[in-house]
Design a protein that fits this description.
mainly alpha, 11 helices
């Protein structure tokens, strides 16, 4: 219990840095966890929003510029990496026809394509200005979505706990919500692939 209190106090004291690092390295799962804590005011939600957004945006920029490096452009193995899956390659190039913004947004919902899409945009020398603008607005929207999810998870947990005074029941409610969201993401992914005519491509 003391260790848990120590962690919560650490998060409260360094919420900005933790949110930034979590955005850069941890991805949406970590940000959802932080927003979960924000539901009980352990961390100000505005801190999570601003600094996790900056972390995710910087991550996108770093990966994009790695893709633009000459040394990367000349490494044949990198080409094999970008073509590690013909299915993913076809998905990314097909969606890219609809513009950089659509590519970055849609690949958020398709498992296995997010990082590849960033490398792809750098590798094909997408205009820096176009990439930065698209990435800025996509990540802004994405952070709003995932923070809202974490906040809903947190409030649901504390609501069930307050009503039933049962931690297992509260955890079960969170797991149920999480399962529903995973299934929703899978459903969106399938719909996108079907709409783009990519569902059966290998």
């Amino acid at each position: 219990m003391e260790f848990l209190n120590y962690l919560l106090s650490l998060f409260a004291a360094h919420g900005a840095w933790i949110s930034f690092i979590g955005g850069f390295f941890g991805g949406e799962e970590f940000i959802i966890a932080l927003a979960f804590l924000a539901a009980k005011n352990f961390i100000p939600i505005w801190e999570i929003f601003i600094f996790s957004f900056l972390g995710i945006f910087l991550h996108d920029v770093v990966v994009y510029f790695i893709g633009r490096l000459k040394i990367v452009q000349n490494i044949q193995k990198f080409e094999k990496f970008t073509h590690v899956s013909k299915k993913y390659e076809h998905i990314i190039t097909k969606i890219d026809e609809r513009g950089t913004f659509n590519l970055l947004l849609i690949t958020k919902f398709i498992f296995g394509t997010r990082l590849l899409s960033l490398f792809y945009l750098g590798f094909k020398k997408t205009k820096i200005k176009d990439f930065l603008i698209a990435s800025f607005f996509v990540e802004l929207l994405w952070v709003i979505i995932i923070i809202s999810m974490g906040w809903i998870f947190g409030n649901s947990f504390y609501l069930v706990w307050d009503i039933f005074k049962s931690i297992p029941l509260a955890i079960a409610a969170i797991l149920l919500l999480g399962f529903a969201l995973v299934k929703l993401r899978q459903w969106i992914s399938k719909k996108v692939l079907g709409k783009e005519g990519l569902k059966n491509n290998k």
